[in-house]
Write a structure and sequence with these properties.
It is built from six helices and two strands; from the N terminus they run αββααααα. By secondary structure, the chain is α+β, with helices and mostly antiparallel strands. Among the domains are: 34 residues, no CATH class; 45 residues, no CATH class.
Length: 117
């Protein structure tokens, strides 16, 4: 919130409220200048463009539901998320995946920390 307020004061953005129907409002941040991208590589900028394209037609609830997969569901609020969770997925889980998960859990002590996978 501090950065958004600072960007508003600089005239770089405008924050507006938009009626989205059903008595609900959406807070939208609108850029008033081009982004400063000097600190990002071409690959990083392409990744941002790809994510925007993928999520463009989804609402906040759809994006939230898609992001709250198995990795989200196995942890408690404010738990650290191990980097190894990047390899977990809801899609096409095979018996080999399950065996490998058990092996990794034993190897890294996840059973003691998080309980049974």
């Amino acid at each position: 919130m501090i950065f958004r307020r600072q960007l508003e004061e600089e005239g770089a953005i405008k924050v507006t409220k938009v009626d989205i129907g059903g008595g609900r409002e959406q807070i939208r941040t609108v850029a008033l200048r081009d982004a400063i991208t000097d600190h990002f590589s071409a690959d990083e900028l392409q990744l941002v463009d790809d994510v925007i394209e993928e999520l463009w037609n989804q609402n906040a609830a759809e994006v939230s539901n898609a992001s709250h997969d198995i990795r989200w569901k196995v942890l408690e609020l404010k738990d650290d998320i191990p980097y190894e969770f990047a390899y977990l997925s809801n899609e096409d889980i095979t018996s080999q995946d399950i065996v490998r998960t058990h092996e990794l859990a034993a190897e890294h002590g996840w059973l003691e920390r998080y309980g049974r996978p």
